[in-house]
Amino acid sequence: MTGYLVVRSGATRFGLPLAHVVEVVPTEGLTAAPGTSPAVRGVMPVRGRLIPLAHLDALVRGRTPDATIGHAAVVMSVDGDPVAFEVDEAEELQRAAPGPLPSGWEFPWAVGVARVGDTLIPILDVASLVERLRSIQIREAS
Length: 142
Fold this sequence. Notes:
Blueprint: E1 4-9, E2 12-17, E3 21-26, E4 40-46, E5 49-55, H1 56-61, E6 72-78, E7 81-87, E8 89-94, E9 110-116, E10 119-124, H2 126-141
Parallel strand pairs: 5-7
Antiparallel strand pairs: 1-2, 1-8, 3-6, 4-5, 6-7, 9-10
């Protein structure tokens, strides 16, 4: 499906491709997962399964998130594997295709941009973020 979900995580707005979005759920029932990356909040129950929850902005920027848990989780599916990204707000759904990255515009994990109001927001490469999440978890477990 063409389009993206505009979310806010921390002070940043991102676009998440609709092709991977399953649903938006409240961040409830979270269980901490010791020994993981600081960006990983833990696991949460979604439709009878425990899936990992990572703070989106912290994962993108490689940092530790604030202690306050965001209100929503965007459940994504990459190659059939579910993962949830914690966000402060799911703002709007856009059915337009993202535009190309402007020349010289550098943003980690961006595959395109979208104009929302007067601002360009990055459309994230969810498959690469999930791969980063997996590599962090493997590295932390070693």
